[in-house]
Design goal:
By secondary structure, the protein is of the alpha+beta class. Helices cover about 25% and strands about 30% of the residues. The chain has 2 helices and 6 strands, in the order αβαβββββ. Helix 1 packs across helix 2. It is elongated, with a radius of gyration of 17 Å.
Length: about 110
């Protein structure tokens, strides 16, 4: 399960950016075509975050649909797989969205 190592990296990246401050919420953008299972990330997150600045933080995952553009007819369309062809029948496409895995935001607790 590569989601465990991905979650470890997310926690490390956010923890470093938080610079010792407590993190209350992390928001990810996760593409449906990325090959990463959102439910596995959600399962691993509290376990990996334990003992870090992210302990107890909420995790929100925005799932991003796949979108592509046809190089032949210039149409943009929904792509539910990496190999979805254009409605015109062309397979000459470029993916526009759906493969991302981004730490979109993090919310920090106020320091007193």
């Amino acid at each position: 399960m590569h989601e465990l190592s991905i979650t470890r990296n997310i926690v490390a990246i956010v923890g470093e950016a938080a610079a010792g401050r407590r993190v209350s919420r992390v928001t990810l953008d996760l593409g449906r075509l990325s090959g990463v299972m959102a439910d596995a990330i959600e399962f691993c997150f509290p376990i990996v975050a334990e003992g870090t600045a992210l302990a107890g933080a909420a995790l929100h995952i925005n799932l991003i649909d796949g979108r592509a553009k046809c190089r032949d007819c210039d149409a943009e369309f929904f792509a539910d797989t990496l190999f979805t062809s254009c409605p015109c029948g062309s397979r000459e496409t470029v993916r526009l969205a759906g493969e991302e895995l981004l730490v979109k935001t993090m919310e920090l607790e106020e320091t007193v």
